[in-house]
Amino acid sequence: MDNAVVKSTIPSSNLSEIISRFAKVCKFRSVGVFPDQNEVEILGDEANETEILDINHKPSRRKVRNFRWDDEISKLFDIVSALKLAYLEFQQAHLPYDPDKIIEADNVVVSQLEALRKIKRLFFKHARNELNAADASSCLNRLRDEIEVNEKRLEKVKAQVKAKQSEIQSLKEKLDCLVAENRRRIVSVSSFEFAFRAASKSIHDFAKPLITLMKATDWNLEKAVDAIAGGNVKYAKNSDKKYAFESYIVRRMFHDIKLKPCDVSELMSSDDPLDALTAFPDSAFSRFCGRKYLSVVHPSMEASFFGNLDMRGLVLLDKHPRTVFYRIFARMAKWVWILGSFAASLDVKAKIFVVRGGTRFSGVYMESVVCDDEQEEGQGDLRAEFMTMPGFKIGDSVIKSQVYLSKSNGYK
């Protein structure tokens, strides 16, 4: 027996009920339990089947999926409500600024838009077969407008997120400084003394290759020493003139240095300072290192050492070249930076002091960079020719300044 042809229709009472429910939801925007993204399903091939008569073509019989508009409209408004709530949560994640919550809210917005797109495709597939095409078209227009509005909002939110990414690094630096300030008691005088000795040694280590390169490129070292320390300095040995170069480096490295607490734990744990500079190219230490390199190494020196100014060019672009020479410099900059951070992180902030050339030697505030005990025994006949490391005063404690001494009868 042939199957009877059944025309699929929607009773007028059901249609009125759907329109009424649609208007109420639009007016009051009531929010219920939000369905999960996975609850919005596209009916598969296994859905119940019936037969309808296509009114747009010649009568023919074809199988279509059974479709209930009231269920899909209910799902639609739940999704729209969830989308609006997700957008509100996205805005709230900016005050206070929380990148993790922003990403989470963004994912929810995207998932709800995907659900809307599924309903949109489902609507297009079945709308042509509905007898009330005008009502369906009106509903489709509303859905399309809603989707367009939310897509524009999503693009706007993505642009805001991208713009705020540049602020993350500066906020992180401020947070690191606050964390370091809260951990002041962790920094002891003994750890400060350790950083002081490490900084002094790193300056000495950088002076060695600097002098070697100057010799190799036929620089007049005697004139350079006289220009740094003056021509009246009496050196116990000719090799002591290397301390004049250390004095030059110290003056450049500590000039206009700002003593402020910062979190240097990652920097201290890094064996190669270039790794830290690469990992945090926008950090305060990175800017300090580049600025001091330009101050210590004159362009004429770099050009004579290497035949070009490639390293200087990279530093001017806020980059850090991976060369042996720059690595030694970066290690020195690392310990000077750590020393300045430690000085500001003590319970009693350290105060830096310098010794001017010609000052009478004082065993309380100075020590000889040569480490000659016999020389210091006759301190009444000694004066500081120049300083190779500044000193620090921490309350009643003193970290002595390192100076080069010579015997003289004239004092300041």
From TrEMBL:
Pfam families, sorted: DUF641, GIL1_IRKI_C
Q: Which GO terms describe its biological process?
A: negative gravitropism; response to red or far red light
Please, which domain of life does this record's source organism belong to? Eukaryota
Q: Does the keyword Disulfide bond apply?
A: no
Task: Give the InterPro entries listed for this entry.
Answer: DUF641_pln, GIL1-like, GIL1_IRKI_C
User: The DUF641 domain covers which part of the protein?
Assistant: 72-183
**Span of domain GIL1/IRKI C-terminal:** 352-404
What residue stretch is flagged as signal peptide?
none
> From which residue to which does any coiled coil extend?
140-181
The UniProt keyword set, sorted, is: Coiled coil
Q: Is Lipid metabolism among the key words of this record?
A: no
Q: Which PANTHER family match?
A: PROTEIN GRAVITROPIC IN THE LIGHT 1
Query: Can you name this protein?
Result: Uncharacterized protein
